[in-house]
Amino acid sequence: MRVAVVGVGNPLCGDDGVGPLVAQLVRRVCEDRRVTIRLTAWEPTRLFDAIQGCDVAVLVDACKGGRVGEVRVLDECDVPTHARADSTHGLGLEWAIAMSRALAVGPKMLRIVAVTGRRFDLGAKMTPSVRHGAIKAAERVLEEVRACLAD
Amino acid sequence: MKNRTLKVEMLARVEGEGALTLRVRDDVLEEVKLRIFEPPRFFEAFLCGRRYDEVPDITARICGICPIAYQMSSATAMENALGVRVDGPLRDLRRLIYCGEWIESHALHIHLLHAPDFLGYEDGIRMAADHPMEVKRGLRLKKLGNAIMTVVGGREIHPVNIRVGGFYALPDASALRGLKPELEAALPEAIATARWVAELEFPDFEPATEFVAMRHPDEYPLFEGRLVGNRGLDIAIPEFETTFEEIHEQHAHALHSRRTDGGCYQVGPVARFNLNRDRLTPEAARLATELGLPKEVRNPFHSIVVRAIETVFAIEEALLVLSRFEAPDRPFVPVTPHACEGCGCSEAPRGFCWHKYRMDDSGTVTFARIVPPTSQNQARIEQDLREYVPSLLDLDDDQLKWKCEQAIRNYDPCISCATHFLDLEVDRG
Fold this sequence. Notes:
heterodimer; A: Rossmann fold; 4 helices; B: Cytochrome-c3 Hydrogenase, chain B; 14 strands; globular
């Protein structure tokens, strides 16, 4: 069993940095060698690489919608299947998931732990409630990881 | 169908926000407008008042896919102004990181953005299901380019290691050595990509075009040389501003570049290849001959093949640099600011990027001008569409939109860079 935890987001863009923050929190307490923990900003092929070949991938990302700081666990089916690629630069999370599926190199199971953010501007500080939500999100990631490893 | 307006409201698989409007009256194409509505970014304005040594890192932010072009054009402009020469291993390292940028940018455009047009897929993900081997190969090549950027520049997007006079720090020697086996493994993959794209079906379209690119006495150009053209142009870098002009078209936030005599021109891989084929590395040159590329490539749709050949070049060049690299004593040449002005130019993956700066005694920037490749190609793209679309007017709007977008993607336009661009609108009356 190989599990990949990937914190997605840009720490320079306010609440978008919650994914990497959660991954760092998980890294502090998770020492299981079957688990790899990575941080990635928005370079899409890096995220694609990070979820290749593992059995389970747990992606942590900021999202919009809902109460700020709220933590939700989403399944792959919650991610839009049609990944628009309007920009050569911003292929994004949906692209990485869709491409890994198209090439049959993606994880057998994918979970997304999402934290609702409010401020995503370059240079913005992370909203306090999002920072607080990061702790809850890290706990949810660890729960997901432990459940996978126990199966 | 005598009169119609075709609108592409948001061009896909290009960088930035732009649109295309075609107006057709009595089956005659009357108007082509490449509308660039990405907001102006005012980089030149806010560079003024900043220190000269901040400029490479600020201009790198213009683009996430070709930051090295902006860093190298600005750094060389500063160095030319300040009388600083960066050569030997430091110059080699700069060629290496530039090769990384070409590899990652070309690999992305060939495999995920342009090949789907030729093979009839809506995008790279749909193409991947039927062509997994080619897509995986493209992703491996892009990863290699990213790795070079990371080793030399600190990170793959907006690298942070290039400074006026050289680098902030020398790359880790073992990480540099680690690139060699990856490059050696990538060379046959890049060759396979070139052979694959050369088998694609290309429209029969050869507009008369003025090509402009840099040319170096000994090397395929990256960031040194003169500006040359296929119609006799041969000027030093500072002469760009008296030979070319930027004009504002009402439908675009990006300035259009033209020759001062009014003619449009093409920059980018095809122009570079046509004007520097004799400077290619051995395997890239042999491959160009094997694939039957003419002495002067005029069909813009062949740009995908030229990009693949340039990818082979970049891998060979990177290997050459690594084979002779010996770490210098220090990562940069000392720089002392003084009042001066200078120009710099480098070959971004999508064409040359020209910069000019003026500084005061303290090294504070008092004037900045940046001419990116996509703004130079805008007029040429519109001219290609004026000449290409009349033969396609029997197509329905969806088919016509597809063909137009494919033609635009020949230039791998980077709209965000140029605004300093797509959505298609065809008005058939």
